[in-house]
Amino acid sequence: MKYINAEEVLPKELVCQIQQYVQGNLIYIPKYDNREKWGEKTGAKKIIFERNNQIISMYQNGYNIKYISKKYYLSEHTIRKIINSRK
């Protein structure tokens, strides 16, 4: 990463504001990240959230873990993790 003088790339007013917090030290400004989070664009996150709610509901209504794992094609371990994640 290359050193850049703030006075060369930022407006003078902004440099003055930053100097109120940091003077003479290096400061890292992270890259702006405007990407959507996983599953938000395709709706996968919502689908999995709804599926997990159904799994928890079935368990609370007396269905056993083995039956639920076969119904959703998930391992019993995964079903337990889903159930325990919402307790």
From TrEMBL:
<protein>
    <recommendedName>
        <fullName>Mor transcription activator family protein</fullName>
    </recommendedName>
</protein>
<dbReference type="InterPro" id="IPR009057">
    <property type="entry name" value="Homeodomain-like_sf"/>
</dbReference>
<dbReference type="InterPro" id="IPR052411">
    <property type="entry name" value="c-mor_Regulatory_Protein"/>
</dbReference>
<dbReference type="InterPro" id="IPR049739">
    <property type="entry name" value="YraL-like"/>
</dbReference>
